[in-house]
Amino acid sequence: MADQQEASITLPSDPASVAAARRYVAEVLGEWGLPEDALIADSVRLIVSELATNSVQHTFGQSPTFTVEVRLERGEWLRVGVTDSHPRWPRRLPAAVQQDNGRGMVIIRWLAAEAGGRLTVCPTEDGGKTVWIALPWTVDAPAESAVTGC
User: Fold this and answer.
1) How far from 17 is each of 38, 61, 144, CA to CA, in Å?
2) Under a CB-based contact definition with an 8 Å cutoff, are residues 7 and 75 in contact?
3) For residue 27, what is the enclosing H or E element?
4) Rounded to two decimals, what is the model's pTM?
5) Is the per-residue pLDDT at 142 higher than 70?
6) Which tens digits make up the pLDDT trace of 19-54?
7) Is 22 helix (H, G, I), strand (E, B) or coil?
């Protein structure tokens, strides 16, 4: 296996793009050997949905597109990032029990931690940001090395 496999897609900042992002990542992971019914596959699909939704909803039209990047590093770490050009970094919003939103970052952090991974946010050159999730890749063998930030 190559040291790193990469794939990316840029989509319009539109609610319909969330499902397209999720499908794209699922297809890429399938090509890389992750069974569709693997527990981590469900987590990754949910993480991508939440990150893409955040990008669409919280950039307030100031980022016309967002990019989803998927990287498999040394067959040990899966990194999924969503980049937009809005300067505001994600933050935890208060969510009342009856609200349908406001829990995205909590869900993402919890899923990453449960899988032994982590979340990082990195600035982009154009003033935007990429929200990255790094998860151990358990398809071939358990991860043994540490993952870096940006």
Assistant:
1) 24, 14, 35
2) no
3) helix 16-31
4) 0.83
5) no
6) 999 999 999 999 999 998 888 899 999 999 999 999
7) helix
Residue written as token pair 């029990």: 97
Asked if 83 and 65 count as a contact pair (C-beta separation under 8 A), the reply is: no
Strand ordering across the sheet containing 4-12: 4-12, 65-73, 77-84, 129-136, 118-123
Is the Cβ–Cβ distance between 104 and 53 less than 8 Å?
Answer: yes
Contact 115, 43 (CB under 8 A): yes
Taking only the tens place, the pLDDT of each residue in 49-88 is 999 999 998 877 788 999 999 999 988 999 999 999 998 8
d(CA 25, CA 38): 14
- Give the tokens for residue 29: 């992971």
